[in-house]
Amino acid sequence: MATTFLTIGPEAATTVLLAHGAGAPMDSAAMSASAQALAEAGLRVVRFEFDYMAARRTSDTRRPPPRAETLVPEYLAAIDALGSRAPLIIGGKSMGGRVASMIADELYASGRIAGLLCLGYPFHPIGKPGQLRTAHLQGMKTPTLIVQGTRDLFGTREEVATYVLSKSIEILWIEDGDHDLRSRKSVTGLSPAENLRIVGAQVASWCARIAR
Fold first, then answer.
1. Which of 38, 45, 63, 167 has an alpha carbon within 20 to 30 A of 198's alpha carbon?
2. 1-15, 46-60, 73-87, 101-115 — which one is most confidently predicted on average?
């Protein structure tokens, strides 16, 4: 299946290629809000879907998400289809970011990408904190930014503090954020949109630093 892209943001900026999470498409409310915030901060954001998710648009049958590692060839194909856009940062929401993290070091070593951006990394399945998905993150060489809500059920701030992660990985914590990076105004004093705009500016600053 040919890769279809959804693009937002200025043409001349750093490009961020994002894949979706396991259960929601590239134009979900959460992904659209994140993409909008990043674009408003000056980044060019390109989203794409894995085949199983794209097939849901034309079929009544909902194919379940496959194992993350089996999606690696599709992510590599999306990078090839996107063409030469330097500097390029790859990543995604939840499972999309996890898949990108599996290929990042090889692409970084060959000079094809400048970094990795994960929006809500699924450190473990919900309710199974012992089933960690962090082994490959311990030796990560690629400059990486994980944007994580402090109350994300896939990895809270307290849980992540106990993990062994590479020094190339930075974590940007969203106070009171959930897995969709949404915070509650009653807790933070900021609307979800206002909070995301602040996060977008911080991500853009990180991108500028690592893409130099």
1. 167
2. 101-115
CATH code assigned at 141: 3.40.50.1820
Q: pLDDT-based confidence at 15, cuts 50/70/90?
A: very high
Q: Exposed e or buried b for every residue in 150-169, given b needs 16+ CB within 10 A?
A: bbbebbbbeebeeeebeebb
Domain that holds residue 110: 5-210
Helix, strand and coil content of the chain, in percent to the nearest 5, comes to: 35, 15, 45
Non-local (6+) Cβ contacts of 106 within 8 A are none
- Encode pLDDT of 143-195 as tens digits: 999 999 999 999 999 999 999 999 999 999 999 999 999 999 999 998 888 98
Task: Please choose, from the candidates 169, 93, 109, the residue with its C-alpha nearest in 3D space to the C-alpha of residue 134.
Answer: 169
44-80 in b/e burial notation, b at 16+ Cβ within 10 A? bbbbbbbebbbeeeeeeeeeebeebeebeebbbebbe
- State the DSSP H helix or E strand holding residue 97, giving kind and residue range, or none if neither: helix 95-109
Instruction: State how many domains the chain has.
Output: 1
Rounded Cα distance between 183 and 195, Å, is: 7
Q: How far apart are CA 74 and CA 38, in angstroms?
A: 24
